[in-house]
């Protein structure tokens, strides 16, 4: 049991459940936008590549009751509860470290404009990019990271730096008080146990995709491509 679990009296959800919850939430939000008030277990489960039994098991871990037999799940209520479970009711103030091609692309990511995420700062060490506008912000010196974190109340960081710099920047973030880091450098970062690090390794995913392609394996339930307009 982690310190957080002991403090809040709750046990962490399984990783697979967390991943499916994010997909359920996306499907529920799409249903809300379409004006739907309820959704069937079959529809919601299939959105995550699961079945109704897995869906019910996932939702049972959240507590509460969200559906009625023959009616389906309340779209707004379930979306709200999943969002709260995922911590999306909190205010996440994000800093991106690295203003290269990847960092600039991430800064323009629309996901920062919803679910409580707010892009607060983008930092870099290169004099060539410091001061340049990116996504409505000016690139700030990475040397000022600690003071920026404190002044702007940053509580989440995205690493978009070269491999060789990733660990040292991670160390600086931890020293500045950041405990939530999304890392795009394909290196395993070392950090204290109370620091949450999520790894986005695109080269690894491409290698796995190449394996499946080489084996002639495809996802039979894949969504067909959109027809050209």
Automatic annotation (TrEMBL):
InterPro entries: CoA-bd (IPR003781), NAD(P)-bd_dom_sf (IPR036291), Rex_actinobacterial-type (IPR058236), Rex_DNA-bd_C_dom (IPR009718), Tscrpt_rep_Rex (IPR022876), WH-like_DNA-bd_sf (IPR036388), WH_DNA-bd_sf (IPR036390). SUPFAM superfamilies: NAD(P)-binding Rossmann-fold domains, Winged helix' DNA-binding domain. Residues 23-62 bind DNA. The keyword Electron transport does not apply. Keywords: Cytoplasm, DNA-binding, NAD, Repressor, Transcription, Transcription regulation. Pfam families: CoA_binding, Put_DNA-bind_N. Residues 88-188 form the CoA-binding domain. It is found in: Cytoplasm. The keyword Aminoacyl-tRNA synthetase does not apply. It comes from the Bacteria. Its main location: cytoplasm. NAD(+) binds at residues 98-103. Coiled coil: none annotated. Homodimer. Belongs to the transcriptional regulatory Rex family. Modulates transcription in response to changes in cellular NADH/NAD(+) redox state. This is Redox-sensing transcriptional repressor Rex. It comes from Zhihengliuella alba.
């Amino acid at each position: 049991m982690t310190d957080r679990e002991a403090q809040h009296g709750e046990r962490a959800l399984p990783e697979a459940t967390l991943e499916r919850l994010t997909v359920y939430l996306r499907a529920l939000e799409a249903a809300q936008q379409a004006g739907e008030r309820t959704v069937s277990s079959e529809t919601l489960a299939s959105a995550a590549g699961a079945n109704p039994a897995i869906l019910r098991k996932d939702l049972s871990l959240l507590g509460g009751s969200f559906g009625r037999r023959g009616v389906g799940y309340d779209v707004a209520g379930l979306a709200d509860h999943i969002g709260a479970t995922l911590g999306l009711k909190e205010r996440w103030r994000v800093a991106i470290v690295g203003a290269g091609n990847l960092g600039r692309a991430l800064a323009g990511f629309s996901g920062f404009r919803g679910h409580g995420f707010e892009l607060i700062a983008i930092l870099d060490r290169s004099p060539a990019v410091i001061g340049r506008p990116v996504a409505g912000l000016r690139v700030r010196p990475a040397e000022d990271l600690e003071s920026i974190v404190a002044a702007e109340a940053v509580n989440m960081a995205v690493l978009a730096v070269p491999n060789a710099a990733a660990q040292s920047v991670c160390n600086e973030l931890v020293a500045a008080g950041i405990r939530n880091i999304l890392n795009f450098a394909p290196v395993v970062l070392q950090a204290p146990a109370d620091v949450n690090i999520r790894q986005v390794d695109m080269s690894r995913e491409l290698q796995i995709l190449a394996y499946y392609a080489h084996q002639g394996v495809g996802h039979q339930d894949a969504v067909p491509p959109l027809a050209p307009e």
